[in-house]
Amino acid sequence: MIRTEEMMLNVGPQHPSTHGVFRLVIKVDGETIVEATPVIGYLHRGTEKLAEDLQYTQIIPYTDRMDYISAMTNNYVLCHAVETMMGAELPDRAEYLRVLAMELGRVASHLVWFGTYLLDIGAVSPFLYAFREREMIINLLNELSGARLTFNYMRVGGVKWDAPDGWLEKVREFVPYMREQLKGYHDLVTGNEIFLNRVKGIGKYTKEEAIQYSLSGANLRCTGVEWDLRKHETYSVYDRFDFNVITREGGDAWSRYQCRMAEIEESLKIIEQAVEQIPDDGKYMGKVPRIIKAPKGEAFVRIESPRGEIGCYIASEGKKEPYRLKFRRPSFYNLQILPKLLKGENMANLITILGGVDIVLGEVDG
Amino acid sequence: MLGLAKGLKYTLKNLTKEKMTYQYPEEPIPMPDRFRGIQKFYPEKCIVCNQCANICPTDCIELTGKKHPDPEKKGKIIDTYDINFEICILCDLCTEVCPTEAIVMTNNFELAEYSRDELFKNLEWLDENDQNVRKENKA
Amino acid sequence: MTWIDSLLQSQPSWTNFAIFAGLGVTMLSITLGFVTFAILAERKVMGYMQLRHGPNRVGGRFGLLQSVADILKLLLKEDTRPKQADKTLFVLAPVIAYAPAFLVIAVIPFTEAFKFTDIGVGLLYYIAISGISTIGIVTAGWASNNKYALMGGMRAAAQMISYEIPLVMSVIGIILFTGSLNLVEIVQAQENIAFIFLQPIAFLIFLIAGTAELNRTPFDLPEAESELVAGYHVEYSGFRWAFFMLSEYVYLFALSALITVLFLGGWNAPIPGIGLNEIGLGAVWFTIKFIVIVFLFMWMRITFPRLRADQLMEFGWKVLLPIALANIFLSALIKELFF
After folding, report:
1. Which of A124, A354, C25, C232 is least surrounded by Cβ atoms within 10 Å, i.e. has the fewest?
2. What is the pLDDT of residues A214-266, one digit of tens each?
3. C307–A192: do the CB atoms touch at under 8 Å?
4. 3-state secondary structure of C186
5. pTM of this prediction exceeds 0.90
6. Exposed/middle/buried for residue C273 (C-beta within 10 Å: 0-12, 13-18, 19+)
7. ipTM confidence
8. Which of A31, A132, A195 minimises the CB distance to C305?
9. Residue C53 to residue C39: CA distance in whole angstroms
10. Which of residues 133-162 of A touch B (CB under 8 A)?
């Protein structure tokens, strides 16, 4: 008599496709997943607790290390929260430099996602092509901020450095170059029948489910919900740019792929306009006291990071350090839908779905 | 099939394109001036104000001062200055707060050692680290 | 009648045995040499296509000794075995996977003179023997006592069964045209026109099914790195692991040679009828065609993503097999009407 039984399988924390130290305990019947339980916390560093003993300026380098793929948005959300509490006025040039840095970071982040996603699906080359362009962005940001990944660029009240000589020109030149390369990506990947078969209809969820699970970013917009904080709860100088909110109707991995690729183009549009509009007065730091103290009270701000809505809550007692700091980390919230999506899928789809959510473990674990 | 053919064409086209890799250990990678590398310390400029040790997010700087040997002069001079590069995150905050630019960044970034103990760098070492010092320190 | 033919047809003797043993060892070294440099070539081509240089440290600018260094490293590596593994099968699996890879080379005629056998059912022999390797892979998956390895082994078995059939079916057209399973006769039948022009559909099916047999991207599911970590050889290390790698590349050698023989006309000159066949460059023509096929395999690996297990099965049974069957019918019609 042949007997079959379910098998418990640990995917991670040492698995090539979990993008860090993420663990997924799955029960499989053959290759079909019956049950999936995500286990997180392997990269927990207690940023929020540490922040309670740190001055606001000192927290900025810690935010770099949360979502290390797009550190600029993290820098921004903290500074934005403190500035909101203090009611600080920023010079325009600082805002434009921030937007440029964030949008370049968004392009770089989506490029990393594109490369690693294709790597998950089994194609090696797109990864290296994507990293060629990412390297250029990283070099640009390196010239601007002095670091390649953990920028520590923004300060409460402005930015640390003004743009170096010729930097804006380089950014301007980068935009058409990147557009050209994107065409190449579409040739290499987007039309590829094997790829289409792998992603179409995989990991599908509806608009309602996406909202119920509190998804954000491309994971939400792929279901057709038009929600982008840059447009709908505009912050910084985003209201001065002309760009579209990308939505797709499918709600599957293919829609998420399309969303992110189209978002790269939208970001390029913003970069192009920002380089044109940036004021030339050389003032990049607002008037803030030397020791930054947020007034007593609390504030919550949220912005659009490449992965979704990143929020920052500060409760302050008027001291140099926050009383409590909390980040709404989009990867963590986006991950919640995973057990539901994985049920009934097979091993190969597990990778496609997990990759499509676009998680960064530094952010999930905080 | 058309999509597959397009992909094949793209990879073939790249066969002869310029290579993007660095020949790193043989040829050093030029870093932009602002790059934050290992700190350079000027003991003669230091006024022992302790601001760098206070601002450091990871508490990796330890310093002690002593009385100025010239009894006429007020203030202190630096005695020991250690940075623990095991936990230093090269965040640039120490150079930002330093009022006399006694501590500045360089563009050197090669810190690999065989022993963890060697990552404790003292005053002499930081003083001798005088190559590729950053030109623009205060923005 | 060439020298080798008379040798093949002579009475069995110890001298005869010694000569063939010597030739076998020579062939073995040539194949291993090919494997060494095929790995290097693959890494180089992959590097160049991906805007990198590939190996460039060991053995000069082109990394000529890189594979040698890798093999030496593998020889020196500790040989680990999981405690709960099935000891006998664990040791046996690489051998089962590796031995058939060499056995199949015996039937391939490289040139008119350079061949080891001349058996009537050469093509059938190749396909039958190469199927044995799967048992080695399944054994490895089972014996490792690892869940990922088990999945890899199962995938390999399913894939092999599904793709062996279209592979055989696609060459029936050629057998119809030639009227023989003997590989030498198949090459001789292509003196005027290579079968790739008469049987383009069969060539495509054979290429696809062959890639699946080789477990190479886009059909590398048994060892899919991003899904099953390393698949069936996840628990193997050192030289046992090297055996799996070696067998993969020896199969690359054998299958590329077989495609050259079946579809590209083997040692016949690429342009027939202008007297190129007579000048004795058979080995050169063969090598050129062979390298083109090997490059094609590498090129596909660099460009394509991986298929999904269930889509792979569907593609094999619902697409490749019907087309292969239709191709047989078409070939029969052409044969009946025009030849």
Report:
1. C25
2. 888 888 888 888 888 888 888 888 888 888 888 888 888 899 898 899 999 98
3. no
4. helix
5. no
6. exposed
7. 0.86
8. A195
9. 14
10. 135, 139, 142-147, 150, 152, 160-162
